[in-house]
């Protein structure tokens, strides 16, 4: 009988917070910049430099904790996690072990028709490390400390997930929650959201956990899914061959679709944690918690319920639009300006999604304003431009956020409402296309389409095709 195995997965998700300055100094957190330019004595670990806690980091961490149904620790503190690594300038990281800011929460996920709660063990605040850049030509490694000291929240789940699908559902739910809060942009490609996967397998039906490994270097949801399947299969093969799974940290190589051992997995005692002597404990009052709770945004679930009541758009459209906080904001603001939510939804669902796909962009990268989208809707509604011109104008709005009214005026794209000019164009088209006219009069309806096309061309596309169709039928 073939043995069946169950995968047991827990995640450690690191999220860079959207503060303008670092967690313990006033250096910029902006991504990019020349190496080692967003630095100071504090974030480069110079002797005698002392940390000062950024209040906004605490408020973001509390907001995330509340959104994930956690208990907020009323007195929490920082600890030193000691380890040597070139991108860690102090030879320790300021983190939280003993009294993290939030504990005992959950995030509800949905995979197919099944809903389940993934429990949150804890969330803690900490500082990010710098970044090593490896130069294979010179066989050297250089260190960029711009990222050192960027504030992080680490969200540690319980081992409640059983498949790659559940892991991706959990990460997508977390990402959406964080983006709705404005706490992080969650750009995996820039490292502002990173997940370490703790995975073990066990024989189906048993309660005891197997030996787990931790996988790092996962910078996309697809890579995470592939890494989970790859590591699950590797561990099952070891067990089937009678060999032991070793508790270790492994690096996933997505190009080779394989993982490699990096180091043996550390336990907390290996880091010699002790209370951070340069920072006082944080005392969080009930009033402060309630102030943060009152500022929580309307999350996706509440938005969907409100959209059902307020807007005449299909449920599917509402789900796609609310899947991005940024797109939902554009939809709501544009609808408020023009009063045509269904039309706004159509532009977002069809042309916007098409252009996002073509340009390999995320909805959060949309740069056009709700005002310009609303103006385009109004131009089409009052038939100042036809549908083909509207699409051309929208592409310019998407790319450069141009004012559609100004663009239409400057490029002479307004529809011609001069019936005299249209009549002259129709007469000429009928004269120049006797075969198409004969075909139409002989019952070939398709021939009318050719005549409409010729008329549109003669009018430079600046006329309503419906009007052309109507007038042609009358003349013929």
From TrEMBL:
GO biological process, alphabetically ordered: glutaminyl-tRNAGln biosynthesis via transamidation; translation
Catalytic activity: L-aspartyl-tRNA(Asn) + L-glutamine + ATP + H2O = L-asparaginyl-tRNA(Asn) + L-glutamate + ADP + phosphate + 2 H(+); L-glutamyl-tRNA(Gln) + L-glutamine + ATP + H2O = L-glutaminyl-tRNA(Gln) + L-glutamate + ADP + phosphate + H(+)
Keyword Transferase: yes
Database matches in Pfam families: GatB_N (PF02934), GatB_Yqey (PF02637)
SUPFAM superfamilies reported in the protein's UniProt record: GatB/YqeY motif, Glutamine synthetase/guanido kinase
Role description: Allows the formation of correctly charged Asn-tRNA(Asn) or Gln-tRNA(Gln) through the transamidation of misacylated Asp-tRNA(Asn) or Glu-tRNA(Gln) in organisms which lack either or both of asparaginyl-tRNA or glutaminyl-tRNA synthetases. The reaction takes place in the presence of glutamine and ATP through an activated phospho-Asp-tRNA(Asn) or phospho-Glu-tRNA(Gln).
Subunit structure: Heterotrimer of A, B and C subunits.
Name the record gives this protein: Aspartyl/glutamyl-tRNA(Asn/Gln) amidotransferase subunit B
